[in-house]
C-alpha cells in the first residue's frame, strides 16, 4: 500500500481536533488532516496553514496513504457511534502495527471493547484522555494515553511534545493497557465535579454567612489563590465572581440560573465506584448536588413550604470565618482527591492496569482543569510510598488536615445550624471521621444481618465465621 510522509494524522476537525492538529504542526510534525466534511479541512489549511506542515486529504483512503508507517491516526469525533463509524472506515485501510488513537471522551468500557477488536486486526488502539478544553488542545493539554507499551514507544514522544509542561516535565505519560487512559480521564472529571461543588459551597457560606456580594467573594478567592488552594479552578472562580453582566450591570453570577447541567462523566465515575465498592462520597455528592439543582418540580414543591427553623447568621469576626471556610475547603478537597485516587487504585487492581498514581498526579499538574500546586504534594506522597493506602494518611497531608479539623467542624456545624446545604463539605467530614474511627457501628449492621438473614458475622475475640441462633430471642 501507499506510504506517505506525515508523522501523525488527525481525523475530525471540529474545535478540539483542529486545535490538536495545529498543536502538532506548531511542534514541527507533518500533520495529515481529514474531516468527513472537506470544507472544515480546507478552512484549517487556509486559516492556519502558515503554522506548520499540513497534508490535507478529502478521502479517508488518501488520508491514510499520506501517513508514514507505523501510521498514527488521531480520531477526534463525537464519542459513541461516530467514533465506531470512523474506526470501521479506518480499519480496512490500515496495516498491522498501525496505531489508532481515540482522543475523544469515550467511556472506558467502549475503549476496552475497541482495543480488543483492533488487536484482532494486528492494530494498536490507544484510548487517550485529553483534558484542557479547546485552549489546552492548542497550547498544551494534559494527555492520558492507554494502550500497549509498544504503541506508546512510537506515539508517546509526539504526545509528550504537544502536552503541557510543568518544570519542564510533560503532562503526558503511558497510563496503562486498553481502557486505563480513558478511565483516568473519567476520574479526573469526577474530581473536577467535587472540586467545583466544594468551591460553590464555600461561596454559598461566604455569601450567606457574611452577606457578601459576588465581587467581594471574588476577592477572597483571589487571595486564596496565593496559598495552599492555588489552582486553575480557584483562579477561574475569582474571575467569574468579579465579572459584571453586560446587559444588566449586575454581578454576572446573580443573573445565572441555579440549575447545573452535566454531560455524564461524573455519573460514570460514581457508577464505576459503586461497582468497585469505593466510597467516593465527594464526587457522588457533587454529582447529586447538580441533580438536585435541576430537580425543578421538587424544588418548587419545597420552596417556601418546608420549615427552615434556622439560626440567624451573626459573624462577629468575618476574617476568622473566612479562614475557617478556607481550611474546611482545603480539608474537604483533600478528601475528595484521596477518594478519587483510591478509585484509581481499586480499578487498577481489578482490571489489571498497574497504574502509577504518582505519575497521574504529575500529569495533572498542568494543562487540565484540576491543575493545581497541590498536585505536586500528591505526586510526592505517592513517590514516598507507591502503595500508600490512604492519601490523607501521608504525613504531609495529615499535618495539613490536622491544622484545619477544628475549623472544618465549625463550618459544617454552622452550615447545618443556619440551613446552608453543604453536601460535599459535610460528607467529606463524615468520611474523615469514618475512616479514622476506632470502631464503626458496622458491628450493629452485621448483627442485624445475622438476625434476619443468617448472613453470619466475625468476632473481635475469635477467628472464624459465626451465626447465632436467634429463635429464642423472638
Ligand atoms: P465540537 O463539539 O467540538 O464542535 P463534535 O460535535 O464533538 O465537535 O464533533 C464533530 C466532529 O465529529 C466533526 O468533525 C464531525 O464531522 P463533520 O464536520 O463532517 O460534521 C465529526 N463527525 C461526527 N459524526 C461523524 C461520523 N459519523 N463520521 C465521521 N465524522 C463524524
TrEMBL record:
Domain 6-phosphogluconate dehydrogenase C-terminal residue range list: 181-471
Keywords (A to Z) from UniProt: Gluconate utilization, NADP, Oxidoreductase, Pentose shunt
Enzyme superclass (EC): oxidoreductase
PROSITE patterns recorded: 6PGD (PS00461)
Gene3D superfamilies hit by this protein: 6-Phosphogluconate Dehydrogenase, domain 3, N-(1-d-carboxylethyl)-l-norvaline Dehydrogenase, domain 2, NAD(P)-binding Rossmann-like Domain
Catalytically driven reaction(s): 6-phospho-D-gluconate + NADP(+) = D-ribulose 5-phosphate + CO2 + NADPH
An example molecular function term from Gene Ontology annotations: phosphogluconate dehydrogenase (decarboxylating) activity
Pathway: Carbohydrate degradation; pentose phosphate pathway; D-ribulose 5-phosphate from D-glucose 6-phosphate (oxidative stage): step 3/3
Pfam family name, one: NAD_binding_2
Assigned protein family: Belongs to the 6-phosphogluconate dehydrogenase family.
Subunit structure: Homodimer.
Function: Catalyzes the oxidative decarboxylation of 6-phosphogluconate to ribulose 5-phosphate and CO(2), with concomitant reduction of NADP to NADPH.
UniProt-recorded name of the protein: 6-phosphogluconate dehydrogenase, decarboxylating
Native source organism of the sequence: Cellulomonas wangleii
Amino acid at each position: 500500500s501507499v506510504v506517505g510522509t506525515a508523522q501523525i494524522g488527525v481525523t475530525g476537525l471540529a474545535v478540539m481536533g483542529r486545535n490538536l492538529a495545529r498543536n502538532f504542526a506548531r511542534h514541527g510534525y507533518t500533520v495529515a488532516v481529514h474531516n468527513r466534511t472537506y470544507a472544515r479541512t480546507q478552512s484549517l489549511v487556509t486559516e492556519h496553514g502558515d503554522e506548520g506542515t499540513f497534508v490535507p486529504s478529502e478521502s479517508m483512503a488518501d488520508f491514510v496513504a499520506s501517513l508514514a508507517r507505523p501510521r498514527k491516526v488521531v480520531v477526534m469525533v463525537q464519542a459513541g457511534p461516530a467514533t465506531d463509524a470512523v474506526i470501521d472506515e479506518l480499519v480496512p485501510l490500515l496495516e498491522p502495527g498501525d496505531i489508532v488513537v481515540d482522543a475523544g471522551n469515550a467511556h472506558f468500557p467502549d475503549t476496552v471493547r475497541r482495543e480488543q477488536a483492533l488487536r484482532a486486526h494486528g492494530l494498536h488502539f490507544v484510548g487517550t484522555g485529553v483534558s484542557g478544553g479547546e485552549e489546552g488542545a492548542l497550547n498544551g493539554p494534559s494527555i492520558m494515553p492507554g494502550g500497549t507499551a509498544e504503541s506508546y514507544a512510537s506515539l508517546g514522544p509526539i504526545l509528550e511534545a504537544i502536552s503541557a509542561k510543568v518544570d519542564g516535565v510533560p503532562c503526558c505519560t503511558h497510563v496503562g493497557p486498553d481502557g486505563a487512559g480513558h478511565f483516568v480521564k473519567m476520574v479526573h472529571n469526577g474530581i473536577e465535579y467535587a472540586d467545583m461543588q466544594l468551591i460553590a459551597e464555600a461561596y454559598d457560606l461566604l455569601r450567606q454567612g457574611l452577606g457578601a456580594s459576588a465581587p467581594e467573594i471574588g476577592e477572597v478567592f483571589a487571595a486564596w489563590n496565593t496559598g495552599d488552594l492555588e489552582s486553575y479552578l480557584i483562579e477561574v472562580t475569582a474571575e467569574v465572581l468579579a465579572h459584571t453582566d453586560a446587559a444588566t450591570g449586575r454581578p454576572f453570577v446573580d443573573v445565572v440560573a441555579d440549575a447545573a447541567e452535566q454531560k455524564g462523566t461524573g455519573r460514570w465515575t460514581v457508577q464505576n465506584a459503586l461497582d468497585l465498592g469505593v466510597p467516593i462520597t465527594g464526587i457522588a455528592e457533587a454529582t447529586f448536588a447538580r441533580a438536585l439543582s435541576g430537580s425543578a418540580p421538587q424544588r418548587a414543591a419545597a420552596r417556601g413550604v418546608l420549615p427552615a427553623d434556622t439560626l440567624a447568621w451573626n459573624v462577629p469576626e468575618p476574617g476568622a470565618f473566612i479562614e475557617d471556610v478556607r481550611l474546611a475547603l482545603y480539608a474537604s478537597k483533600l478528601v475528595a482527591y484521596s477518594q478519587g485516587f483510591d478509585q484509581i487504585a481499586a480499578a487498577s487492581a481489578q482490571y489489571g492496569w498497574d497504574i502509577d498514581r504518582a505519575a497521574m498526579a504529575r500529569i495533572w499538574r498542568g494543562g487540565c482543569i484540576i491543575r493545581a500546586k497541590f498536585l505536586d504534594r500528591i505526586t510526592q506522597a505517592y513517590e514516598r510510598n507507591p502503595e500508600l493506602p490512604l492519601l490523607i494518611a501521608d504525613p504531609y497531608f495529615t499535618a495539613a488536615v490536622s491544622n484545619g479539623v477544628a475549623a472544618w467542624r465549625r463550618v459544617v456545624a454552622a452550615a447545618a445550624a443556619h440551613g446552608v446545604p453543604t453536601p460535599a463539605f459535610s460528607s467529606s467530614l463524615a468520611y474523615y471521621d469514618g475512616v479514622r474511627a476506632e470502631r464503626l457501628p458496622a458491628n450493629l449492621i452485621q448483627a442485624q444481618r445475622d438476625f434476619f438473614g443468617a448472613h453470619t458475622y466475625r468476632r473481635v475475640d475469635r477467628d472464624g465465621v459465626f451465626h447465632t441462633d436467634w429463635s429464642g430471642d423472638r
